């Protein structure tokens, strides 16, 4: 497995492949909801590759000078359980540290909060809805 982080068009395509497979086809989220205005920018994507096949992904943005917001974490079904998402999150947190961020935040579906809590994130919001799915905001001090 090899992790690549960048905004190269081929890497963006890899991220979109994983997100399309997981969120749109598997989870049946609305296509127009999954791909948002951040995908139009020069945002960097983290993609884990099994040889040439993109199998796990995430992205980040810097909403302010102290926060890295990690999002769109997804892994293809047949690759789950290999801790690929953990590797992506840790790599993105490291980018945040290098950029001087003091905290990381993640909007998580309620069903995934225990995964993030295992990575030392804590819930800091009441429940809200994104794409008709109950979510919460989690944060972690870097």
Structure description:
By secondary structure, the protein is α+β, with helices and mostly antiparallel strands. It has four helices and eight strands, in the order E-H-H-E-E-E-H-E-H-E-E-E. Strands 1, 2, 3, 4, 5, 6, 7 and 8 form an eight-stranded mixed beta sheet that branches. The longest helix is centred in the N-terminal third of the chain and has 18 residues, at 9-26.
Query: Globular, elongated, flat, extended or rod-shaped: what is the shape?
Result: globular
Going by CATH, the homologous superfamily would be Gcn5-related N-acetyltransferase (GNAT)
Mean pLDDT: 94
Radius of gyration: 14 Å
What order do the SSEs take from the amino end to the carboxyl end, as H and E? EHHEEEHEHEEE
Report the end-to-end length measured between terminal Cα atoms.
26 Å
Number of strands: 8
Q: How many helical stretches?
A: 4
Helical content (DSSP H or I, runs of 4+): 25-40%
What's the level 1 CATH class?
A: Alpha Beta
Approximately what portion of the residues adopt beta-strand conformation? Answer: 35-45%
Estimate nothing, just give the exact number of structural domains.
Answer: 1
Structural class: alpha+beta
State the CATH topology. Aminopeptidase
Low-confidence stretches: none
- Quick one: biggest sheet? 8 strands, mixed
Mind telling me which CATH architecture this is? 3-Layer(aba) Sandwich
Which helices and strands, and how do they pair?
Blueprint: E1 2-6, H1 9-26, H2 31-34, E2 45-50, E3 53-64, E4 67-75, H3 84-98, E5 103-109, H4 113-118, E6 122-123, E7 128-130, E8 133-141
Parallel strand pairs: 4-5
Antiparallel strand pairs: 1-2, 2-3, 3-4, 5-8, 6-8, 7-8
